[in-house]
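Data deposition worksheet. Section B asks for the primary sequence of the deposited chain exactly as it was used as input, without tags or linkers unless they were present during the calculation. Section C holds the resulting structure in token form. Section D is free text for depositor observations; keep each observation to a single sentence. Incomplete worksheets are returned to the depositor.
Section A, Depositor: J.P.
Section B:
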Amino acid sequence: MARKQRSKGTGSIYQNSRGQWVAAIEAGWTERGTRRRLTLKARTEAEVRTRLAEAQRRVAAEGPVTSFASITVKRWADQWLAGRQRVVRPGTYVSDRSAVDRWIVPTIGHVRLDALAPADIRKVATAQENAGLALPTMQRTHAVLGKLLTDAVAEGYQISQRARETAGPGTGPSSRQALSTDDAMRILAAVAERPDASRWVAALVEGLRPAEALGLTWDMVDLDVATMTLAWQLKALPYVERRSPASGFRVPRGFESRHLVAAYHLVRPKSRAGIRVVPMVPWLADALAAWRRCVPSSPFGLVWPRDDGSPRSAEFDRAQWYEIIDQAGVTVTLPDGATRRPLLYEARHTAATLLLANGVDETTIRAVLGHSSVLSTQSYLHTDRTRTRAALAESAKMLGLGG
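Section C:
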């Protein structure tokens, strides 16, 4: 066993009988009054010197510690998720947890953080690709893994820079598309006889996000001046313990929400730009006035509830959309020639495209759609509502909905 002498108090480095390189450092005292000696192991002398230097830095910065031993990806992921729920929106937490539980832990959860290599990072993307997942999902999982590792380093764990800088699964064009004017008109023809036709016009012309539409309440609709105030979104928040309502809900500090029923809450948009007042085209204002006279009674005042007055789930809303799409016979053609049904969120893309086609400036479009990249304050919308109303009216005309 070779041992290398170092200055007193700086630790020692040696190679054990198994050929491993070992560094030892004194880190305070035990409860019994004896010196606490920590050991660090690595495959090469250079690696163990790096770990020793980091240990010395932590002792100097944090004082005596009990262990510098690394932990597995799974063990750190469990700790990371426990803290993550306190600082991110519930939807983000659920997405992060899904990436961790379904792909990251099953693929590399057994690997120690300090042993991670670029090949391990690539295994996660490979597993998803083999399962036929779309590129955006793979990109999202890679981003979650990157954040997980970055936060581990911030906690003092050793992770090689090569592993942390491993390239992601690549980039590609968004799979979301806007519908053509003809297809949008076919959809409107299909919803014309539905009592909730206003729900789908709000998506195709006004560009409401699905959660905004489902969270809209009548007190936010002013039929006299034909405006909608979009200040809440309908979300099903996760329980602290899965499928256990008694355990309460996972929400970060300062998260603003209003509980409705079961897991359903009205929550604030992600950014202040999402809170906005949008003018309604005359057709929509008239349709909502008619809908209000026959809408199922909702104890929460929801504009578009289910038949029993309860909140529409995102799944129910999408099922209604696909029923309409099938009736209209509208499909989207992909770059490889394959076809699929349009996504509900693509109705919002269609609204933006219609505004662009009418020569509406980007600032107005962002104000209508509530994009965070523009300062769409209430004062801005109030002073410029004539322009936003005119822009939406032109879109309605293109779809045969009058002025």
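Section D:
The chain has three domains: 2-62, 73-164, 181-232+270-398.
Confidence is low (pLDDT under 50) at residues 5-9, 373-384.
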